[in-house]
Amino acid sequence: MNKALLLGLSLLALGATAGAQNVTIKINGYAGQDPAIVSDLINRFVKPQVAKDGITVTYEPLQGDYNQQLTNLLSAGNAGDVFYLPGETVQPFVATGRILPLNGLVDSKAFLSNLNKTFTVGGKLYGIAKDFNTLSLVYNKDLFDEAKVAYPNANDTWTTLATKLRSVRKALGNDYYGACFVPDYARMGAFALANGWQPFDAQGRTNVQDPKFKAAFDWYTGLAKDKTVVQPSDLSTDWGGGCFGKGNTAIAIEGNWITGFLRDNAPNLNYGTAPLPKATSGKRGNFLYTVGWAINARTKNKAAAVKVLNALTSAQAQQYILERGLAIPSRTALQTNAFFKKTTPEAQNASVVFRGASDGNVVTYTAGRYNLGEWTRPINEALASVLSGKSTSAAALQKAQADLNTLQKR
Amino acid sequence: MNTQRRQEITTALIFLAPFLVTLAVFFVYAFVRALYFSFTDYNLFNDPTLVGIKNYTDIVADSLFTTALANTLLFAFITTFLQTVFALIVANILNQKIRGLAFFRTAWYMPSITSSAVIGLIFLWLLQRRGIFNYLLTQFLAYAPVIGTLALVLVAAQVVQVLIERARRLPASWFDPALASVSALVAIALTWLLTSLGVVGVRDVPPVDISYYATTARIGGVLPVPLATIIAQNTFTTVPTLMLFFLAGLQNIPRALYEAAEIDGATKVQQFTRVTVPMLRPVTFYVITTGLIGTLQMFDQVAIIGAAAPLAQRITLAYYVYSRAFAGGVSEVGLATAAAIVLAVITLIIVLLQRRFFVADEAQT
Amino acid sequence: MSIAKDTPRPPARRGDVDDRWIARRRWARAGWTYLFMLLLSFLFLGPFLMGTLSSLKDDPNEYPPRIVFPQINPANISTAYRLGVAGGGGGWSGGLTPGADIDFSFRVRQPGGANEIPRVSVPARRPGAGLGAVRSRALANEYVQVDGPTVVRREGDVVTYRVKVTYPRLTRQQGERVFATLPDEQSGADFTATVGGQPVKITLDTPEAQQVQYTLGSNPQQPVELVRSGDRYYLAGPLIERTPLDVNLARGQTFEGADLPASDVQNFGRAQSFRNITPGILGYTFNNYQRAFRESVDADSGQSLFLRWTLNSFAIAITKALAAILFASLAGYALARFDFPGKNLLFLLVLFVQMVPLQVTFISNYLVLERLNLLNIWGLLLSTGIGAAAVFLMKQFFEGLPRELEEAAALDGATPFQTFWRVMLPQAGPALGALTITTFQGAWNDFFWPLVLLKGNLNLTLPIGMLSFREAYGAAGDYGLILAGAVLSALPVIVLFIVFQRYFVESQTGSAVKG
User: Fold this and answer.
1) Chain B partners of C447 at a C-beta cutoff of 8 Å?
2) Which domain holds residue C97?
């Protein structure tokens, strides 16, 4: 009884202080279009919930390299109470000791388990996925119709997809291509994963000379030999979506971000979405690109920060974001959302991307304890030299392995 | 006497106070602290502890550091050399009394006044694989027969005319401007005729396809292509300014010196090496010193190019320091400051060597 | 080189080297020099001119690049103007307002058999990125009626069609037109809008108006047109930014052209899409510039970021120039004229500072300013306000001045500061000019330190802010926006330069020759 009374009193006191004081929760996140989205979320879903507690919420975007800026602010002690934690830099940031473990503060069961895994280090959860993306295959229906080739679909394997792309090119002539492939692990890696390759073995080492990796590498670069696949710079753009928007590439391997781009740059492009093709093993692979919400371990208003975080990741907020076509929600329950059943190209893409998170070998796009840029550099250089025909895949992979070994010795 | 001296010292200190304060805080303290950090394991989040010279041995072993060092030195020397030489040449051509120079000066100054961010973004756009620059190269190759004909006829016509003039015992030089105008007219007319007759014409060439950023190619096996674009860009932005420096220097040289040299029977080349070059020494020294200091600290373009080019192909020491200092999460500040100190030492050595070289050279003449 | 430096050789003994021969050569030489100067100008200005020209294009990356493109075609510009007027938003800024009535025609080649009438629609088209993607605005497709296409003319196989797009007013009342904005949220039973800062109740007098009440009400800050009749306001309809139009042809038909060229073409030329058929000149020719402003707005305050960055850059550059004039010349004067212990050491330090890269000191400076809570423009000013180079320049200059002036002043009983302020500083005009301009230019173009130091959208300077234009759709470049931004951010300093160019050039060359 005493206990209950105490609890009641302390709750009262808590309520009183929160109501009296004007607590400000500062949020740090990306620049670009994020300020508008988050401000919108704050106005619609956060303010109504926390205003009665006297909490005001502000969003402060970090210009330039987000990771560098967040490091600056964290070390200086003036980072926001709540901030974005990019999936690929979870480990280095957790190592600073400035990220608050969320176990016991936030209920994480409602979120996709693959996403929670991304933000878990040493058994502790450090972030809640804000949203996520995986790779999908978008295809230009007009090109396939004109070439009288069947659309790519969920049953396609590497071989059947390659055949379809070659047929499209054969039917439409040399001004049309199968796809633009970038020399980037962020795309090619998904195929290696499909083949059962693992970025890090039990000792935490990377082996790119693994036959499973090499087979995927050869498939990805092999399409370039007869120009079925070109590089984006061949078409004076710098990513696969840019090529696709021009209307002369049959497919693109991109995440849900491509839909926003097409809405602006190729609004009348008639496209559809299929999952990535299956490897010979019959499995798919995919990357999870995700950014989470994390709380500053040194925040002066922990309770308020948790409240804001919960409001930002609430089911209503995520549903709103999904229906506006802005991002893919991280809550498992939303997979039955009516939006995913719509037939618009954008909704279909969102649905494929959402399902991609739990279809086959899916890992977060990260380099573990390494710096992502340094770790992917050898692989990307190998891809670039083979895609441009300057090197054979065996030689390129040997060099990449040597570079990775040096990195791993440090 | 003594009070007067004390007064002078006080006045000097008052005058110097604002400068001394900022100098002390933002330079001396910062410098000493950087030196200290370079011997610690500081990572922004811990209390620094001394680790001896570990950071220095670590960066020497870091292949990215050695790449950055090589890139920085290549960049600094090549850029300084190119911009100085080009500026000197152009200034010499323009060193004459001409109306309307002021107007042209305004135009040429434009690259120097716009920010590196603006120029960097414009160059990034120009130098795409299917960009304006490659397009112009393609056009040049396509028109090569026509341009070749034009040049060939021009040279031939000039040679013939000069020989005729000389046969008439007129003192015509090979570059006689009046004859060159006639040669140019002849060349244009003849080329036009040949083109319309279909003897020479535009070739069909495939589009030039050079990637300037997303490439691992190195010029001569040494100079990364993306770095070469930054060199070109830096030269482009500094030549106009430096050229005007040289031009001012040239116009300060008294005519009497040349006249005296001429009376002594000095040739044009001798006049250039004996009069122009020594008289321009102060300007040249200034241009080279500031050029070296500036280029050794190259950062802007590397950051602006960003992910468009592989890191090893563009990284400089300044960028290495920056990327190590704020890499995301725990940061290797010790490593970064060690690299920064190395950069400072290199700058100092190069500037001192350069100074010695210049001063010694001056003593000779 | 020798073209310019050739001077006439001494006349040969024979041959007619007369005045005319020499004059001819001189004229020719001048001609060649001007030609050379013109070429240099092309070289140095070329990238800017190409950039500026291409910033007007829909796709600055088109290959092969064109010098003449639809956006600068006078016929298209005048059509854009006419359509802007028809849309009701005016010939310059374009847009779609209630009561608009737009005729848009296009031509289709229909060889025998392909007689199907093209399908025409006004689609729902929201921006996909930037602020536009989030801000919800009334879209044209919810308010317009499309009539047609009707055949206007047949010439052989080519058929000209006309589409009529009308935007009927949502009220039957007549009266004064009033522009208003909707509030962030409709609260209560009344539909309200803000007219000149005052909330007013709006009467929805037609079923059409009542029908859009909820969709329209969910667009915060949506501009609308009202009609005032008596003391009541009636809703005429929202002001819409653009009117997209899609034309889809049947197989076998080819598109032959339209009032304005399509902004996007797919499906082998059979899907023609017009971003905006009521663009006005700004929306058509200067579309990228309009975007640069529309897509860089602070989400909270609605302030134009571009303008803000420009003001920040100006504020920093001017303050730094003023600080240099006052403090650097004081310090330079003290170093030049006074004798005090450690003077040589200080001078050596001044030389040394100029050689030490910023990368050595920036981490400590960052930590210091962070401790002082000055990670902003003020911190930038404090840390770089008095440059060693400026002190050095002023010291060199004051050393070159004769001492007599000060001695005369000292005899008159002036204090050292009075001597400095009244006698010496006025003498320093040329050096101060050089100092001001180099400082201004340096501050304007400064990149590394502001990049490290400045936080928050509103605090940035132009060069740093410009980088954010590269970030739309990840690393991919939206070059239309980038080039427009580059041109806009270079413009103020170019204007400044043209006005003060005499000082710019002379000051810099002067400092070099003396240095």
Assistant:
1) 115-117, 299-300, 303
2) 72-280
